[in-house]
Fold:
Amino acid sequence: MVFTSREIQLRSRPRGEPSDDDFATVTVEVPDPGPGQVVVANDWLSVDPYMRGRMDDVESYISPFALGETMTGGAVGTVVASDTPDLPTGTVVRHFLGWREHALLDAGQVEVLDTAIAPASAYLGVLGTTGLTAYVGLTEIARVDPGDTVFVSAASGAVGSVIPRIARHLGAKRVVGSAGGARKVRRAMEDFGYDAAVDYKEGTLLEDLRLAAPDGVDVYFDNVGGTHLQAALDVVRPNGRVALCGAVAHYNAEGRGPGPDNLYQAIKKRLTLRGFIIGDHRHLAAEYTQLAAGWLADGSLTREETVTTGIDTAVSAFLDILKGGNTGKTLIHLPRT
Ligand code: NDP
Structure:
């Protein structure tokens, strides 16, 4: 059986904010699997802010998307044709050929998932790179010690919405977040486990942060960069730790964008600031998945997903993340008829 696949390609490289016009949807025929290969029907696609960086033709930790080629990204799907005995049809797998309906993959490119532990979509979010990023940031990068206060930016996003529960498991006493808008601030406190949250689009971030964390913070998990990092450096306590995870405030910036003007705080307070790329920490995936599966089962870790349906929604879902339209993990569901 020949499968056709609708796929999203990069048509042009944006300057500043991307738009629909930078993408094209094409339909291709997927070849039959050769020996050691499978065809996977993607059920879930991961949409992530770092993909904005891949639209630029610049040197980075991951190669840029090529113009006129189908984009890639995390995906979970079901094997629908197989020429490898270890991966019979019906096997649910995770792989990196997202942004398309069907993918031809070598057996070595897929990872078999245990959907008895959690629904397939969780393997792109709380049980996947998203959750692992939170865990690595709070353990290897900016260690949380019992009794610590933790501050998190983009608190209602994919990584931000899982941090309080994980931080609590590690002994954090207080977790404070920052998010854009009253609805996200409320959800951060009511649904994601934050003790306090500030709306960075209203008021003054630094003053509000001082009120939310009157004794200062021990760990800052930075998803945003710019003025968030600047405010955090002012409230982090001596010997505090900062995990530099993301800088979403800069992703659409033309030029360098705002940066902290108070790095001297890092010297005065003997701070540790450490950037990380999650791909360098995959050795912790098995440990984290086991822990997180247990926490999901006992309800001490929860899933938050913003889901749209159909490949035609992928571009708008991506553009939405960069404008703060999501809460939790952004996923595209591709139901099969
Ligand atoms: P999110 O789901 O948090 O989406 C991004 C959020 O950023 C938006 O929802 C929006 O929330 C916020 N945002 C957008 N623009 C701005 C701005 N100008 N200022 C402040 N906030 C803004 O994404 P993820 O959880 O997937 O990722 C969070 C961060 O972590 C990103 O920077 C990402 O690139 C990074 N990351 C890094 C990894 C690594 O290996 N180092 C791995 C995974 C993610 P709001 O409405 O609150 O503004």
Remarks:
- Residues 74 and 96 are 4 Å apart (CA to CA).
